[in-house]
């Protein structure tokens, strides 16, 4: 089965961490950057002066304004900047540019832009002449243009409009680098330069902790970072990762960590806290702890289930969220209806089912007719319909009991947890006494003799009696029509007759008188009855 990727495209909004490598506004003395041409040897050089930022704080700046001379090539180089492991460098520049059109008699060589360069080095080895002041070996980052330029002049001097531009470059691999700014015919002031790199910040998301991670070398780079599950959490499906892009932003999360069983996520998913007392969580899922169901409790914090209280139980198939249940009370109002050696029992369900819906009934049969003052379990010959155990309906038919015998029937109520209780099921009992059992029928009748209008039958084996009582045998003649068999004695119409015999004595049969119809086609039926 393929691994499931948990990709969540929404990550809590966090700001990229910016680590400053150099900030000109923090200088408490001269910046001391290197200029070309050398200051003093020409009026074309950049000049370091004191100025003010937009908040009127005193800062050190560099300015140049040689707009009336052609072919300007004025450079200023920062001091050596160590990269501190960064692969991509960002440069924030604040500057002002004079509008060429606001300068009287300015030649067409006036510019409102400047160039930004960088040069990598493993050590601070630059001199006034090295590296050479040209694009190669310097690497050009971009030509910087002002969004706004100033043109007004008041009594206090120039009214400046400060522009802010950010550029980045990489990858860088040496221990450090220099920055350089090239003027080629503008009137401008470099007010502030801040050099920094970006990191994706420390973050807890998807149940995992990700430490600060340096951004990639390119703006489109994605740097993979492995997360570590927060305490009491575990990874789900795949190793959890986040990717840090070139702007120091986390994106494309893969995988996740979930709080272990017995713990829940709190504080926006940044902490897995043990379930408090009285609560539980059975599995590792993104869900809160649940309160213990009725009749159960926990024994400690961080529970994965709740223990049933004394007298209450749970089956293996019961969900852990289900209340603990108990055994049912006894059935109510047992009613018996005796018919000779059988009985119908009916009852009402127990008043208390124990909180379950799987209540069934068992029948315990005891015979108390032994004359010894005790009762014994009924034999296997006793029949229960539909069955003796596990009755789902409150009724049962019991047959094949002994005649003239006292019985006690216990109707037990049980449910799914009865087998966990140390006590026997509760029951309701009823006492009954059976009546005389019915005799068996006379199975065979023999014809001894017959005449035209009579027949003399004799029964076969004597009918049996469960108690050994004597019985009488009787017979009866019934008439039935049979179109296939006819008898035509003189003066008689075609008919067929049958005789029925029954017992009414000590296994003897008296002569049965017959009406004057054909006896040759008569059949004998028999029965027995008590005198």
What does this entry look like structurally?
With 531 residues, the protein is an all-beta fold. The chain has four domains: 17-198, Sandwich (Jelly Rolls); 204-297, Sandwich (Immunoglobulin-like); 332-433, Immunoglobulins (Immunoglobulin-like); 445-529. It is 0% helix and 43% strand. The protein contains no helices and 41 strands. Strands 1, 3, 4, 7, 12, 14 and 17 form a seven-stranded antiparallel sheet that branches. Strands 2, 5, 6, 8, 9 and 13 form a six-stranded antiparallel sheet that branches. It has a four-stranded antiparallel sheet with strand order 28-29-33-32, with no helix packed on it. Residues 1-10, 153-158 and 481-531 have low confidence and may be disordered.
CATH superfamily of the largest domain: Galactose-binding domain-like
Q: Roughly how many Å is the radius of gyration?
A: 56 Å
Strand-residue fraction? 35-45%
Individual helix count: 0
CATH class of the largest domain, anyone? Answer: Mainly Beta
Q: Predict the CATH topology of the largest domain.
A: Jelly Rolls
Question: What is the CA–CA distance across the termini?
Answer: 84 Å
- By CATH, the architecture of the largest domain is named Sandwich
Count of β-strands: 41
Class derived from helix and strand content:
mainly beta
The general outline is rod-shaped
What is the total domain count? 4
**Spans of at least 5 consecutive residues with low confidence:** 1-10, 153-158, 481-531
Estimate the helix proportion, in percent.
under 10%
| pLDDT averaged residue by residue | 83
Largest sheet: 7 strands, antiparallel
């Amino acid at each position: 089965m393929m691994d499931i990727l948990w990709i969540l495209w929404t990550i809590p909004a966090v700001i990229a961490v910016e680590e400053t490598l150099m900030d000109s506004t923090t200088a408490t003395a001269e910046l001391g950057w290197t200029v070309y041409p050398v200051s003093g040897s020409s009026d074309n050089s950049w000049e370091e002066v004191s100025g003010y930022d937009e908040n009127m704080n005193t800062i050190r700046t560099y300015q140049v304004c040689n707009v009336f001379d052609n072919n300007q090539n004025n450079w200023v180089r920062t001091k050596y900047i160590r990269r501190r492991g960064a692969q991509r460098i960002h440069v924030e520049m604040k500057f002002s540019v004079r509008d060429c059109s606001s300068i009287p008699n300015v030649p067409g060589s006036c510019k409102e832009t400047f160039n930004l360069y960088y040069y990598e080095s493993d050590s601070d080895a630059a001199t006034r002449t090295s590296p050479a002041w040209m694009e190669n070996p310097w690497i050009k980052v971009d030509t910087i243009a002002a969004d706004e330029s100033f043109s007004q002049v008041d009594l206090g001097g120039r009214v400046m409009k400060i522009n802010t531009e950010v550029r980045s470059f990489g990858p860088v691999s040496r221990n450090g680098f220099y920055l350089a700014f090239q003027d080629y015919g503008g009137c401008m002031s470099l007010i502030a330069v801040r050099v920094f790199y970006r990191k994706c910040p420390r973050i807890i998301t998807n149940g995992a902790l990700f430490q600060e991670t340096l951004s990639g070398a390119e703006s489109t780079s994605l740097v993979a970072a492995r997360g570590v599950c927060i305490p009491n959490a575990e990874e789900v499906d795949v190793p959890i990762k986040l990717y840090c892009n070139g702007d120091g932003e986390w994106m494309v999360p893969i995988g996740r960590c979930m709080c272990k069983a017995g713990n829940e996520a709190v504080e926006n998913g940044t902490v897995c806290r043990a379930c408090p007392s009285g609560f539980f969580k059975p599995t590792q899922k993104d869900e809160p702890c649940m309160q213990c169901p009725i009749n159960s409790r926990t024994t400690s914090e961080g529970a994965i289930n709740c223990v049933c209280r004394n007298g209450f139980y749970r089956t293996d198939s019961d969900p852990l969220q289900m209340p603990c249940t108990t055994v049912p009370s006894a059935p109510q109002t047992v009613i018996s209806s005796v018919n000779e050696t059988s009985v119908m029992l009916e009852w009402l369900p127990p008043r208390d089912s124990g909180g379950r819906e799987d209540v069934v009934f068992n029948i315990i049969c005891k015979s108390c007719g032994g004359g010894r003052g005790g009762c014994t379990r009924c034999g296997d010959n006793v029949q229960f319909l539909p069955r003796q155990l596990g009755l789902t309906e409150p009724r049962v038919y019991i047959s094949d009991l002994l005649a003239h015998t006292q019985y006690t029937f216990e109707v037990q109520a049980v449910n799914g947890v009865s087998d966990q209780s140390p006590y026997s099921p509760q029951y309701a009992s009823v006492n009954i006494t059976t009546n005389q059992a019915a005799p068996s029928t006379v199975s065979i009748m023999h014809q001894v003799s017959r005449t035209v209008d009579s027949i003399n039958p004799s029964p076969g084996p004597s009918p049996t009696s469960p108690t050994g009582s004597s019985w009488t045998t009787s017979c009866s003649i019934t008439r039935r029509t049979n179109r296939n068999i006819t008898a035509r004695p003189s003066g008689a119409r075609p008919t067929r007759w049958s005789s029925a015999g029954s017992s009414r004595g000590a296994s003897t049969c008296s002569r049965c008188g017959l009406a004057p119809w054909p006896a040759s086609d008569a059949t004998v039926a028999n029965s027995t009855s008590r005198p």
